[in-house]
Input
Amino acid sequence: DADVTQTPRNRITKTGKRIMLECSQTKGHDRMYWYRQDPGLGLRLIYYSFDVKDINKGEISDGYSVSRQAQAKFSLSLESAIPNQTALYFCATSVPGTADAGELFFGEGSRLTVL
Amino acid sequence: GESVGLHLPTLSVQEGDNSIINCAYSNSASDYFIWYKQESGKGPQFIIDIRSNMDKRQGQRVTVLLNKTVKHLSLQIAATQPGDSAVYFCAEDNYSTLTFGKGTMLLVSP
Output
């Protein structure tokens, strides 16, 4: 079983619909992240959480919200999906280094298509 | 290693050659850097990391070089194999989160 599990793996939806992408992890890590990947643009940080009571905006948080339901669960929501949110979304976890992010462990990705 | 628009820089090599993938980073205060490999349809996987107090670090068939003067990272893969074909990303620590480069595609032909 994967240590970082994302559901759904693929989703097609329509403009204006609410969508939730879920992430669960069995690694016991406190830190969790949501990244978005677009062709040629690399991975961009949407939101991150350093523990259950901590939520932080990343580089591209507009149009997204998150919920950290437990140490093991971090969900990403699109309240009203739009076509330019069509992308591959990755959840990741980490154990921090001395004063840095540490190695990130990624899920397999959730491909979202907004029509 | 920077992409232009939607086009990913691509490095094509022959099996057995050594590959060098380059990356320019932006934050001179970054003190931790990682290389990730992403195979088609999968999430990125850790390859090797390096801290700013080092210039070079070696792993199994991979070496990362860090030049802080010009804010440049490189990943060297020795004896490149078809299984090394993937997109490679460098990432720099940015206030305890990772900021990723746009990636370089490595194509290895037999």
About this structure: Chain A has a mean pLDDT of 93.
